[in-house]
Design a protein that fits this description.
- The chain is of the alpha+beta class.
- The protein has four helices and 22 strands.
- The chain has helices at 12-33, 107-167, 173-230, 353-357, and strands spanning 40-42, 50-52, 54-58, 61-77, 82-87, 93-95, 100-105, 233-235, 240-245, 252-253, 258-275, 287-292, 295-309, 312-318, 332-338, 343-349, 361-365, 372-377, 379-383, 387-392, 399-401, 413-415.
- The protein has a six-stranded antiparallel beta barrel with strand order 4-11-14-13-12-15.
- A hairpin with a 6-residue loop joins strand 17 and strand 18 (372-377).
- Helix 2 (107-167) runs antiparallel to helix 3 (173-230).
């Protein structure tokens, strides 16, 4: 007879459903807890630049451009104004000290000079006449005093006799008193005359001194006007190259106007423009170098011009080991300007990424696969034309994308 078999719980259908459910739950759990949910972007590896993070000496320098200039440049400014009657030398010519460059004409200066000269001549005559007049007056005063002394001696004799006669009661008191008054009056007059002569003599000396001072000032003015007239002939103050002469015959030149310059060719310097960002780090004594005729030549900052124009300031650099042979005025050359001594550091090459991230993060290539790059925060320090100094976030041997991040958006992972 047939037996009824017990019904099995784990049928093949149930096993299949349970396994599928477990697989689905596991997949969901992995997706929720372990899956990479970061935003991704596929990029073509051959269109980006990948650079190695390295360790080496960080040379703190910047690349600037210098222009060769004469060590000394002498400006030619018109000391006296006038119109140009003759131009003897053109710009670009070599000149010697004292060589005549221009001749100017100024009728007003000549007229003023003649007036001052005439005034000086008049004062000379006045001084001579005054001295002569005072000399005559001095003789007259001496003669007057001499006459008074003679009269005083006579009156003294009379007074002495009258006093003796009056004592002997020979003459009256009236005659005695008259002789006394005459003598004492003339004696007082002589004292007054002496004081008057002393005052007149002092006054005469004062008049002569004032006339001499006036004459001295006038003659000095004449001398200055004479020098001004001589400055109508413009001469080279030093020997060198007359690099510019911006005047022509017939043109009018104002006093103080710049008419050219002379370059002293006994030495050269480099005038260098530097970004204002470095103004606090640039000072006299800093070194630099540049390439010329296949050789490296040293430079040293001698002067810093602190005025900033269009975001740049200028410095003068000289050649401490001598001017390179063959260098010419106006030549320009790239210069490596050192801002500090080299020091060991972690380095990444300069690239377009900095303008997109500000140096705060980069994409670092995954070492294990090499097929993706992940966003990572970093800290950068100093910069030179070749490298950034890495302070935090990267290790030597790692690889980073250093080209522009402009097309990567905010994605955290780049897939190659």
């Amino acid at each position: 007879m047939d037996r009824t078999l017990p019904k099995r719980f784990w049928t093949s259908q149930r096993l299949i459903l349970s396994g599928g459910s477990a697989l689905l739950i596991g997949l969901l759990a992995y997706t929720f807890f372990f899956a990479d949910r970061r935003s991704k972007l596929n990029v073509e590896k051959d269109k980006i630049t990948i650079s190695n993070v390295s360790t080496g000496p960080f040379e703190d320098f910047i690349a600037v451009t210098g222009v060769v200039q004469p060590l000394k440049t002498i400006r030619l400014d018109a000391i006296a104004g006038g119109y140009v009657t003759q131009k003897l030398v053109e710009g670009g010519s070599m000149v010697k000290q004292g060589e005549i460059l221009l001749r100017l004409e100024n009728q007003n200066l000549k007229l003023t000079f003649l007036q001052q000269e005439t005034e000086a001549s008049r004062l000379v005559n006045d001084l001579q006449n005054t001295r002569q007049r005072l000399k005559v007056e001095r003789y007259q005063l001496r003669r007057t005093l001499s006459e008074l002394d003679y009269q005083l001696e006579q009156l003294k004799d009379t007074y002495d006799r009258q006093a003796k006669l009056f004592a002997d009661k020979v003459i009256s008191e009236q005659d005695y008193l008259k002789a006394k008054r005459d003598y004492e009056g003339l004696n007082e007059r002589r004292k007054i005359e002496i004081e008057s002569q002393k005052y007149q003599d002092e006054n005469a000396k004062t008049q002569i001194r004032q006339l001499e001072e006036t004459l001295f000032r006038t003659q000095k003015n004449v001398s200055l006007w004479q020098q001004t007239l001589e400055n109508l002939v413009v001469k080279a103050p030093v020997s060198g190259m007359l690099s510019t002469m911006d005047v022509e015959v017939g043109s009018n030149i104002n006093q103080g106007q710049n008419i050219g310059q002379i370059d002293d060719l006994n030495g050269f310097k480099m005038r260098v423009g530097v970004d204002e960002h470095y103004i606090s780090r640039v000072f006299p004594g800093l070194k630099g170098s540049f390439e010329f005729n296949g050789k490296t030549h040293e430079l040293e900052i001698k002067r810093v011009y602190p005025e900033v124009k269009s975001g740049r300031f200028e410095v003068d650099m000289t050649f401490p080991t001598g001017t390179p042979e063959g260098i010419k005025r106006g030549q320009s050359s790239p210069i490596q300007l050192e801002l500090g001594k080299a020091a060991k550091a972690t380095l990444i090459p300069v690239g377009g990424f900095f303008s997109d991230t500000g140096g705060n993060w980069v994409y670092v290539v995954d070492k294990s696969s090499g097929k993706r790059a992940v966003k990572r925060n970093i800290t950068l320090g100093r910069k030179n034309p070749e490298f950034y100094e890495v302070l935090e976030g990267l290790q030597p041997g790692e690889q980073v994308i250093t080209s522009s991040y402009e097309n990567f958006g905010d994605n955290e992972v780049l897939e190659f």
